[in-house]
């Protein structure tokens, strides 16, 4: 009987000794789930639009520019209204460092003296955008061209 009591007490104490999850743990889990859901929606958008050619001012599968693609993606996938131009898109939300990027953040590039480019961060140094040379595609922030042209990031 005493052995049974010791086993019961041991089981009870060991169950109580595990640390309860903290609000920050719950927040991390929610952030991870949100990031995965966002990335999934962005990958689906890529599948539907991959290769659609770049066209300045365009916003259809006949041709689309970078800011139009970002605006359309946020409206279609997340129900979020963004401004139409890169100049206005760079003013929304808040600044985020390159090391703190999460899926859905906007990444901006200075591609010329007065030319700007925008894409949507996917994770793992990848971003989705409408390229002037290859249309809608996924590129790497580590690519020598994009690495050199990186300017800033915003979280809408």
Automatic annotation (TrEMBL):
<comment type="similarity">
    <text>Belongs to the peptidase C40 family.</text>
</comment>
<keyword id="KW-0472">Membrane</keyword>
<keyword id="KW-0645">Protease</keyword>
<keyword id="KW-0788">Thiol protease</keyword>
<keyword id="KW-0378">Hydrolase</keyword>
<feature type="signal peptide">
    <location>
        <begin position="1"/>
        <end position="19"/>
    </location>
</feature>
<dbReference type="InterPro" id="IPR052062">
    <property type="entry name" value="Murein_DD/LD_carboxypeptidase"/>
</dbReference>
<dbReference type="InterPro" id="IPR000064">
    <property type="entry name" value="NLP_P60_dom"/>
</dbReference>
<dbReference type="InterPro" id="IPR038765">
    <property type="entry name" value="Papain-like_cys_pep_sf"/>
</dbReference>
<keyword id="KW-0732">Signal</keyword>
<feature type="domain" description="NlpC/P60">
    <location>
        <begin position="36"/>
        <end position="156"/>
    </location>
</feature>
<protein>
    <submittedName>
        <fullName>Peptidase P60</fullName>
    </submittedName>
</protein>
<keyword id="KW-0564">Palmitate</keyword>
<dbReference type="Pfam" id="PF00877">
    <property type="entry name" value="NLPC_P60"/>
</dbReference>
<keyword id="KW-0449">Lipoprotein</keyword>
